[in-house]
Design goal:
The complex is a heterodimer of chains A (204) and B (10). Chain A has 204 residues and is mostly helical. Chain A has helices at residues 3-26, 34-47, 58-80, 97-110, 117-131, 134-142, 148-175, 181-203. Chain A is 74% helix and 0% strand. Chain B contains no helices and no strands. Classes of the chains: A mainly alpha (204), B little secondary structure (10). Chain A: One of its GO terms (molecular function) is ER retention sequence binding.
């Protein structure tokens, strides 16, 4: 564990907590893309299925449980919570996110480290995470009013993967040259997608 | 050698 990765995990955790706070405190999910939240839930389920088979560390297991349960809780709130679900702008959140799932799955079948169920699920989750923010970015560009908490949520989500890229650079120089090309490429695409958001976020 | 990246990250 290095500082970049720990900072990345904390920033990621913080982004989820900010979103949970927004939804819980304001009982509203206006401006939040439910499709992005559903994609993140799929990302975590596909990536953390080794939760019960491989024990890496208490930290690793606890964080996996936190990410899976928080993303499921947010999707549940946006679908089932009587007050929150009313504030979901369904007609605005129109990105065809099924296309993203299908594309990530096809990519994972072709580009993976080993053609095994575990590795294909892992690659699928990495590719899907890289593009999962798209419905949310489209929603932000449509909606005039980006409320602070939603803006902060997206900001921290973009920052977390940038920290992970620093983590991969650090590990490259300290731990030898593992083939991380899947993580590298996806991480760069993921952080790149936020570039225009960061541009407007800081200009506003 | 292209070793598979360890899956110890979140």
């Amino acid at each position: 564990m290095n500082a970049f990765r720990f900072l990345g995990d904390m920033t990621h955790l913080f982004s989820v907590l900010v979103l949970l706070l927004k939804i819980y405190a304001t009982k509203s999910c206006s401006g939040v893309s439910r499709k992005t939240q559903e994609l993140y839930m799929v990302v975590f389920l596909a990536r953390y299925m080794d939760l019960f088979t491989d024990y890496i560390s208490l930290y690793n297991s606890v964080m996996k449980v936190v990410f899976i349960t928080s993303s499921a809780a947010i999707v549940w709130c946006m679908r089932r919570h009587p007050q929150v679900r009313r504030t979901y702008d369904k007609e605005q959140d129109t990105f065809r996110h099924v296309v993203l799932v299908a594309a990530a799955f096809v990519l994972a079948l072709i580009f993976n480290e080993r053609f095994t169920f575990r590795e294909i699920c892992w690659a699928f989750s990495i590719y899907l995470e890289a593009v999962a923010i798209l419905p949310q970015l489209v929603l932000l560009q449509r909606g005039r009013n980006v409320d602070n908490l939603t803006g902060q949520y997206v900001f921290f989500l973009g920052a977390y993967r940038a920290f992970y890229i620093l983590n991969w650079i650090y590990r490259y120089f300290t731990e030898g040259h593992h083939s991380r090309w899947i993580s590298w490429l996806s991480g760069l695409v993921q952080t790149g997608l936020y570039a225009d958001f960061f541009y407007y976020y800081f200009l506003r | 050698e292209c070793l598979a990246a360890p899956k110890d990250e979140l």
